[in-house]
Amino acid sequence: MPAASTERTTAVVIGAGMPGLAVASELSRYGVDAIVVDGMYVPGPLQPLNTGILQRCDAADAACLQERSEILRHLRNYAASHGLDVRSTTRAVRLDRLDEAAPAVAAAETMASPGVVSPGVVSYQWAVHTANGVLLADHVVVTRCGQSQLRRMLAELGIAIGQNLVAAMRAIGMYLVGVGELATPTPKEVLRQAKVVGQAISAKVHPDSVHGALTGTFAAIPALA
Fold first, then answer.
1. Taking the CA of residue 189 as centre, how many other CA atoms within 13 Å lie in the half-sphere pointing to its CB?
2. Which of 3, 49, 69, 186 lies 20 to 30 Å from 120 when distance is taken between CA atoms?
3. What pLDDT does 99 receive?
4. How does pLDDT run across 177-201, given as a tens digit for each residue?
């Protein structure tokens, strides 16, 4: 892991469409740093994590198209005016859980920021690999991906999944927004999911805040399963 190409953030949002921008906007409102990348793509069959392209599931019918376009316009304006880190030409190519890679990541962190990272202490759960380097984060938000696709991806990562997909993901710092199994979520449902996930991540980042105390139970998330 080249130290020069390693960046650190609180959350990485995979997908720069309406769901991803909605989550990034919610995180910004709660003061949580995030980097948005434009989806996830593994270029060849020999890669360790061969998930292919996470297919879009945000196609809108005629009735929703105008509403979706208007919401997207507002989200893009918010991202631009608030300086959100949206990398629309960057794709994730691999995800790594850092449980086993912690010593290597700690060494890379120390080289990248001497005197900043305590020896042997790794606070990040995920390494999101891109063509430009590695993004270290405690939280990953996946958008525009069917739940069946996500189950396969987690299985390839060696992560045990029970009946409650959302609970299993929450335990490892991963969240879903803009996801549908049989039907595409409406724009309002996508915004609701983004708000719930933004609150959940904020509650973990700021557990002592009033907001964290009110949202720490994550009560609304089972509705996404």
1. 14
2. 49
3. 65
4. 887 555 567 888 899 999 999 999 9
pLDDT tens-digit readout, 80-136: 999 999 999 999 988 888 864 444 444 444 344 433 333 444 457 899 999 889 999
Structure tokens at 75: 């989200």
Q: What pTM value is reported for the model?
A: 0.75
Tokens representing residue 117 in the block: 């990272």
Q: How many C-beta atoms surround the C-beta of residue 147 within 10 A?
A: 17
Q: In the 3-class helix/strand/coil scheme, how is the chain assigned residue by residue?
A: CCHHHEEECCEEEECCCHHHHHHHHHHHHCCCCEEEECCECCCCCCCCCCCCCCCCCCCCCHHHHHHHHHHHHHHHHHHHHCCCEEECCCCEEEEEECCCCHHHHHHHHHHHCCCCCCCCCCCCCEEEEECCEEEEECEEEEECCCHHHHHHHHHHCCCCCCCCHHHHHHHCCEEEECCCCCCCCCHHHHHHHHHHHHHHHHHHHCCCCHHHHHHCCCCCHHHHC
What is the pLDDT, as a whole number, of residue 133?
Answer: 93
